[in-house]
Amino acid sequence: MPSSSTYFRLAIAATALAVVVVMLGAFTRLADAGLGCPDWPTCYGHLWVPTTEAEIAQANAVFADTPVETDKTWPEQVHRIVAGTLGLMVLGLAICAWREKNIPGRPQKHAYVLCVLIVIQALFGMWTVTLKLWPQVVTAHLLGGFATLSLLWLMVQRLGGYQWSFQGLAQLANVKRWTVIALLVVTVQILLGGWTSSNYAALACVDLPTCQGYWLPDMNFAQGFDVMQQIGPNYLGGNLDNEARTAIHFSHRIGAIITTVVVLLLAYKLWCLNHPDSRRWALALAVVLFVQVGLGVTNILAHIPLPVAVAHNAVGALLLLTVMTVMHRLYTLKPEKIISEEG
Predict the structure, then answer these.
(1) Cα–Cα distances in Å, from 193 out to 109, 157, 187, 197?
(2) Catalytic residue among 69, 76, 243, 341
(3) Cα torsion for 67, 127, 12, 179, to the nearest 10°?
(4) Distance between CA 39 and CA 46 in Å, rounded?
(5) How buried is 168 (Cβ within 10 angstroms: 0-12 exposed, 13-18 middle, 19+ buried)?
(6) Which of 229, 244, 298, 304 could form a disulfide with 224 if both were Cys (CB 3.0 to 4.6 A apart)?
(7) At 138, is the secondary structure helix, strand, or coil?
(8) Percent of the chain topping pLDDT 90
(9) Is 342 known to be catalytic?
(10) Average pLDDT of the residues in 25-47
(11) 298-322 pLDDT tens trace
């Protein structure tokens, strides 16, 4: 499959832009700019943002309950514009898939699924504003962003024809199972991270390794993970009490420990395959994991500095993509190049 095809180049560009969208989304959320524009898709009725004194005065008159905060309008609207551009690129991928539907190996349904996902993401983006940062919607929107990035990256892998060519690896089936486990664990940890952020629980524990000076602080898991909580009126800053936020934060910490163990085990198993390709990716997994853990610890000890918090989101996405890459390489190995134990 020619790597110079328009389809392939567009997939690479869309993946790069999706990384930007994920980081902008994290910045917008962490800077408390999620309601920087109280309407959707415009911002105080503007295609960009109100900038002049007259525009701001008019916007404040129309949206009296949410006066203009100029440091929060532009992150929200920039995020929307870049996300909209990504949507157009995904539409372009679907057109490429349709035009090349008769070429063997071109992922066609893959592109169509991405189109559907982008539409759903746009709806969640709208509901994030109209439901005023309801945690369920904010978390789903974050997961949708990670899913979009992951599917775009997988498309790059498929179009690029990236594969490993191992031989004589009887233990390969065991490593495949571990990639599935690692993918599930990393996904759950991202979900917990999104729930922590959307419920403003990141600062519920500001010490390590204890939480509020205790190994087991007072926690309210029922309230912290009540996904049927009522909608509104406004979730900016969070509505949960301290014990509920502590339960969420504590769960994310436990998830981090489990994720570390599982990903390190996968890296070890890849290393034991004793192949240059698998060892490179084992090192990549370990490096990305330790950077992510370091960023998480820094977030707690430094009280969530914005650049570190955004980087924590970005490296979390990188860890997910690294695990997905390993899985793709393992599951696309040609059967004739694998020698089973019976062989």
Answers:
(1) 30, 27, 10, 6
(2) 76
(3) 130
(4) 10
(5) exposed
(6) 244
(7) helix
(8) 76
(9) no
(10) 92
(11) 999 999 999 999 999 999 999 999 9
